[in-house]
Amino acid sequence: MDTLLASKDHKVCVICDQAKVRGIHLYTSFICTECEKELISTDTSNPKYKYYLTKLKKVTTPQILS
Ligand SMILES: [Zn+2]
């Protein structure tokens, strides 16, 4: 199981941490098609949505490199 080994065709999804081929780019990160669908279909009142937001926070809040 070397799912974290990203080749040039595979990118590691920020939500499920799996290397996937299909997905969308959000800022500098990648979200796979499956997680994108999950995110869209998850109600904002669902606790799972908060989990996604926590994951996405890493994406939407750029880290200041010092
Ligand atoms: Zn994913």
Automatic annotation (TrEMBL):
It comes from the Bacteria. The lineage of its organism: Bacteria, Bacillati, Bacillota, Bacilli, Bacillales. This is Sigma factor G inhibitor Gin. InterPro entries: Sigma-G_inhibitor_Gin. It holds the Pfam family Gin.
